[in-house]
Amino acid sequence: LFLLFFTTHEELQTLDVDDAFFSTPEDIAARALKPEGGVKFIRTFQKQAEDQAINLPPNLDQLVKNATYTQSPDHLVWKFFYDLRGSAEYPFPGGIFQWARYRKNGTGLNENQKIFSESLNKHENTLTLATLRIFSNSLGQPHFHFNANEMGYVVSGCGQVGVTLSTVTSNFNIGIGDVIFFPVGTQHYIQSVCEEDLLLVLAYSTGNQLETLRMNQYFHGTADHILAQLFFKEQAEFKKFPKPAK
């Protein structure tokens, strides 16, 4: 079972090998592939009633005799493969992140992480992927991303999501199997409301380092005298908000 994310906002277009083959005139396929028997051999292929991208033949063991392949060198594999579950954990108040992402500063990354990170940044349309675990009854505070749309899939647990658009906030519940989406620049929060942890797989549409601004960061980053004017409160009152942890 795979969970797949694709970097497109259009309807996904896919062309399978068998569809491409059967859409090609027999004489053209014979000239391109040059099989023994020529066109006669090409004509022995019959299009199946079911899409073979989804359904495997019932006699697969008779058709496939050898499915072994030479293992690619590690440095090549690492451009395409990353052990997210075994990667470093990044705790925050209320939960844990694990990242498969591009990082401008590669200090402290192992060779695998550096190669994968650089591979992401070389491609214009790619993804940063993460797992987000929010502990029971904890909160992933309001925040937004400057340079990415965000999509998430709920693996376990249940929660509540809030999306802020201008001065209006929309709240809704999420559970196992649900998908959520936050357009770039949209403030949102996620909280766990079950006894078990809320676990999500998140994808961000960017190959660059993800840029995020959290509520406690922009609130504390605004001068006290400006906040006093905005909220009609004495300037000293805003000293009550603690500085966000780095």
UniProtKB/TrEMBL annotation:
The parts of the chain that form a coiled coil are none
- Enumerate the InterPro entries for this protein: Cupin_1, Dynactin-associated, RmlC-like_jellyroll, RmlC_Cupin_sf
Could you tell me what this protein is called?
OXDC decarboxylase
Pfam families to which the protein is assigned, alphabetical: Cupin_1
UniProt cross-references to Gene3D superfamilies, sorted A to Z: Jelly Rolls
Q: Which SUPFAM superfamilies match?
A: RmlC-like cupins
Which residues belong to any copy of the Cupin type-1 domain? 98-239
Top-level taxon of origin? Eukaryota
What do the Gene Ontology cellular component annotations say? Answer: Golgi apparatus; plasma membrane
